[in-house]
Amino acid sequence: MGRLCGPRLAALAIVYVALAAAGQDVDTDELFEQVFRADSAALKGAGNAWLERSYGVQTIGHGYYSPRPSPEPPAESPAESPAESPAESPAESPAQSPAQSPETSPETSPETSPGTSPGTSPGTVGDKDVSPAPEPACTGVAYDGYLTSCTVWADANADGMKGNAEPSTTVSIGEFTFAIGTTPSALGTLYLNTAAEGEQQVQSGSTVCHDRTTLLAVKFPYAAPQPASCAKPITISPLTTLLVAGAPRGLTVAQLLESLNLPAGFALLTTDTLGAAARGNADAQRVYRCDVQLIQLTLTGARFLVKTKAAQPAARAAVLQALAQQITASAGRRRLHAAEVNTLTIDLGLGSVIEALLAAAHDIAATSVPSADLTALDAQVLAAVANTMAALNAIIEASGGDIDKIQKAVVVAETTLASKVEALAAGTLTPEAFAAQTTPEALNSALGAASLPGAPVVPPEKKSNKVAVGVGIGIGLGVPLVGGAAFAYWYYTKKARSGSGVLSQPML
User: Fold this and answer.
1) How far apart are CA 69 and CA 56, in angstroms?
2) Dihedral-angle region of residue 5 (phi above 0 means left; psi in -120 to 50 means alpha; beta otherwise)
3) Residue 237 pairs with which residues in a beta bridge?
4) Quick check: helix, strand or coil at residue 458?
5) Residue 211: closest CA among 462, 463, 456, 460
6) Which of 29, 280, 318, 382 could serve as 365's disulfide partner, Cβ 3.0–4.6 Å?
7) CA angle 494-497-499, nearest 5°?
8) Using CA atoms, how far apart are residues 276 and 257, in angstroms rounded to an integer?
9) What CA–CA distance (Å, rounded) separates 53 from 466?
């Protein structure tokens, strides 16, 4: 193992130092993963050979071991059970069912493994435990800015309500972990409990669910599809929420990314997009800007659609459903008119797109919100609101990788713009006055005056990356040096004792 790992890690350390000295942004997780993945196959083969030589055992699958077969003809083994090779499922599908999970099926037991002889425990060799490693804990990240003091729960029975027996946990500084032993199949669609409608901005350390950077109480209805695996952290974000809203219409990650003109293949369900954006990843920055545009669209649109706080949750859901419908309809038209792909993307920075979206959301909201609580749609008012929302989204898009500026746009949407939209919907502000007070120049001015009273955005992985680099460099440089010194000591000691060497005393 030392011969395999030592030179590899030493080379890794040299590459890392060289790239860092050149000013390159080094993804240490990717570097370590590539090196260890390359070595893992060789190490596994070496380990299996050692077990066979030392204990007379061989690998039979699923991490279990069995005595080496005797020369006698073995008994006919049963046919391989289909349960041992679950069908491969799309990793990014929001409608993932428990049966499609890539984890090892619990139906495959050691007792049914061919080659296991009576009296031999497949989980041990002698007194050594060689059982498979336990399932990884189901962990994740939730963000607009990183959320905190929020409850995440799994709708395991798909009834849309949090049951006492359903898995739940608390989000702290953007991260959450379900109880040890919780498997993906025990989870369902993930939901985050929002703050009460009367909450607006809280103090740092509040027990109210909030964004720890803006200190705004969370009103956006965060959700994420049931995870297929817990091998990677689960992401709960505005865009994963849109996937859940579109699940009844079969909305997929690929459709969402293509329709919103986002990087194809982006791992939306397992990437801490905010953290990657803060570290300068260009693709993550594009996705994060869209995340924030979606928040602004949902919260501001809902304020316009209904007159009461009690109706706000239904209005937010209506906006998300309307956008999901637009995306799936756009995907259908794209399949029919492949040559018109560029004209069928949905630009959330266009007033005409948002105007159509709000009109559709109004129709959806009308199915669950009392008519007395609905805002009557007036063409002039609708156009004024849509154009202002589009202007703010265009400012967000133009912010590039400026995470603070993007976060301040949320503050403007939830304070300055929110009050004006409510006044317009109530009829206390005319469309002309609203348009004059919410020009792109006025929005930029409000954004410049906005502040972020909470904690700055610091990606959770940053600290662990530094530790990994230190350990990697230490091991990579240390193993070859220690191994070389030990060999030199043994060699010269042997020569001295045999009298055949040129030294009469050990070297050390």
Assistant:
1) 9
2) alpha
3) 223
4) coil
5) 456
6) 318
7) 105
8) 17
9) 40
Q: What are phi and psi of 296, to 5 degrees?
A: -60, -45
Q: Alpha-carbon dihedral of residues 113, 116, 117, 118, nearest 10 degrees?
A: -60
How far apart, in whole angstroms, are the C-alpha atoms of residue 444 and residue 413?
A: 12
Amino acid making up residue 338:
A
pLDDT band at 495 (very low <50, low <70, confident <90, very high): low
Kindly indicate the confidence band of residue 502, based on its pLDDT and cuts at 50, 70 and 90. Answer: very low
What's the chain's average pLDDT? 77
Neighbouring CB atoms inside 10 A of 396's CB total 27
Supply 200's token pair. 């607006």
Q: Which pLDDT tens digit goes with each residue over 405-449?
A: 999 999 999 999 999 999 998 889 999 999 999 999 999 999 999
> What does the pLDDT read at residue 459?
73
Select the more confidently predicted residue: 55 or 153: 153
State how far the Cα of 474 lies from the Cα of 385, in Å rounded to an integer: 58
Half-sphere exposure of 320 (CA within 13 A, CB side): 26
pLDDT at 136: 74
Could you give the CA distance from residue 88 to residue 205 in angstroms, rounded to a whole number? 44
Consecutive H or E run containing 175 = strand 175-177
pLDDT at 5: 52
Which one-letter DSSP state was computed for residue 316?
H
pTM score over 0.70: no
Intra-chain end-to-end CA distance of the chain, in Å:
26
Angstrom distance (rounded) from CA 10 to CA 479:
9
Nearest to 176 by CA among 140, 228, 126, 131: 140
* Residue 172 DSSP code: B
* Predicted pLDDT at 77: 42
Question: In degrees, to the nearest 5, what angle opens at C-alpha 164 toward C-alphas 160 and 167?
Answer: 75
The pLDDT assigned to 330 comes to: 76
Residue 12's pLDDT band, with cuts at 50, 70 and 90, is low
- Cα distances from 476 to residues 12, 23, 41, 63, 130, in angstroms, run 7, 22, 19, 28, 27
- In the structure, how many helices (H) and strands (E) does the chain have? 14, 13
179 and 196 Cβ atoms separated by less than 8 Å: no
What distance in Å separates the CA atoms of residue 25 and residue 222, rounded to the nearest whole number? Answer: 31
Q: Is the dihedral of CA 35, 37, 38, 39 positive or negative?
A: positive
Q: Where are the beta strands (DSSP E) in 26-67?
A: 57-61, 64-67
**DSSP code for 24:** -
Both tokens of 387, joined, read 């154009």
Task: With a cut of 60, say whether residue 248 has pLDDT above it.
Answer: yes
Spatial separation of the C-alpha atoms in residues 500 and 495, rounded to whole Å: 6
The two tokens of residue 383 are 């156009």
Note every long-range contact of 480-484, with CB atoms under 8 Å and residues 24 or more positions apart, other chains counting: 480/2, 480/6, 480/7, 480/10, 483/2, 483/6
Cross-strand pairs, 337: none
